[in-house]
Please model this.
Amino acid sequence: MEKQITDILRNLMACASVTNTEKEIAAETWMLDFFRKQPYFQTYPERCGLFPIPGDPLHRNTVWALVKCDGSDNEEQDGKAPENGLTAEEDINAIQTAGQRPTVIFMGHHDVVPADVYGDAAPWAFDLDNIAAHLNKENLSAEAYTDLLSGEWLFGRGCCDMLGGTAVQMALLAEQAEKVLQKTDKSKKTQNEKNMMADKPVKTLLSNPDEAIVDDGDEEELCGPGKADTCSALLFLSVPDEESFSAGMRGSLSLLEGLKEKYNLDYRLAICAEPNQRLADGKTQVVYSGSIGKLLPVVLVQGKLVQVGSYREGLNPLGILSRVVAATEGDETFTERYGEEVSVPPVWMYVRDLKEGYDFSLPKRAAGYCNVLTFQKTPAQVMAYFLGKIKGVLEEVSHPVTVMTWVTLWQQAKQHSGFEKFWQETERKKRELLQEEHKTFPEVTLWLMQRTLDFLNFDQPAVVFGFAPPYYPAVRSEEMKDAARFAVYKKALSALQEVEIKTYFPGVSDCSYCGIPEGTQNPVYQVNTPLWGKEYHFAVDALARLQIPFFLFGPWGRDLHQAGERVNRYSLTEEYPAVLRKLLHCVW
Ligand SMILES: [Zn+2]
Model:
């Protein structure tokens, strides 16, 4: 398998699938071709495909492939005890939901960050075999250089984040598919003999509303009546755009729901193959069972424009905004603790006046946006925190200042005459800014806030609060459905490899869209995000329905996004595939 993993990795890297570019499609096509070449998918061509990301201007796709297996088709058949570190009782506990197919999702992303940081070595950044020869002391850290000399690491853009993990998952899916096919051939022969003596079993008819998932109507070939509870499945899913705005994962929720319904899948565990770090001992790998939340609150301040000589009659929005920034930036009282883990305080990413050019008057408006990472705090709590700080700042301002959330401002605009026409034109211009002028989400959010204030001819001092995309909900696998079963998987993983399972992956990941606990959907975010809708959204209801517990568990990697990006050769080609294989059988 070692050779197959490095072959896949080499080919995937060569696609140079830089995030938010058409090049991601090259990787998608390569992956689909790989699956189509497997005998299993030649027999069942409908079980793999490209799922177009809805509304994506770059026309990118999620690559998916599904192998339906018979649960008894594993090592346990040889009469050996399962090597997953579980007692027989726990193993039984892991197989409970009769009638649904226990399913593991291998998930990942096929986009990579650009290779500019490689400098002179950039032309080889995507060349797995030759990049090492072009790296040296000058472009690597001391640790990376030592690793380079050791020969134990593979270098190059994407090898670690995360095409390496993806290559392993593709190879394992192919292996599983081959096993199933061999078993099917055997069972077909037996079936033919039986058919000579009895009527054919009635086929289960499956309806499929989703055009992207074609019904292959062969439900019973591997799972005859009475066997359904032992049938399992492995679903591979690789999304585009993870390194940008997660359009791939957000857009794939309907695919996940469609496949679940069509094949009666019980998504028991997703394993996202993002690389992991290890503790200083070089052995204990840090794995995550949750992913941190991220929000981008936006504050726009409208002051009172006067000539600087009349300063006392005016109101400088920069004065207010900078005090809001000072009251919140790095505020440790905002941070959250979960066990030993502590979240990062608010960090302002952008603060400036909105005046174009220079003159001798106060700026009319100023705005900023702030990066907020959360464990448990909801958008409503984050909003309450910021509004509280804003009101605190305004208590020391001599002029009256109105504080508004975006939804309040928008409601006022809706009641204003001429709104329909105004909004139609705004929608058109908004699309143009995003798609043709490639303005960022926060830029267009600020543009929308200003445009709406202008439409209302609102010229009193005001502070408008809202959110800009992206939004990553904070998630913890332990609080999703079937928590007891997930506890068993954690135990199994700990028995299979030396790991430290932490809760919140601090780097923000697509796993945020694996599900949210029921009852936590709150419309505060949606109504206060001017761009929520066609331009940016995800199916919040689908998240509440899906609730897929996950591990962020991949091979051992270092220095992702840097020129020293590397993945440990042994971890990638031997250890990780072996552990994944065993973990699969624990879930099935
Ligand atoms: Zn990644």
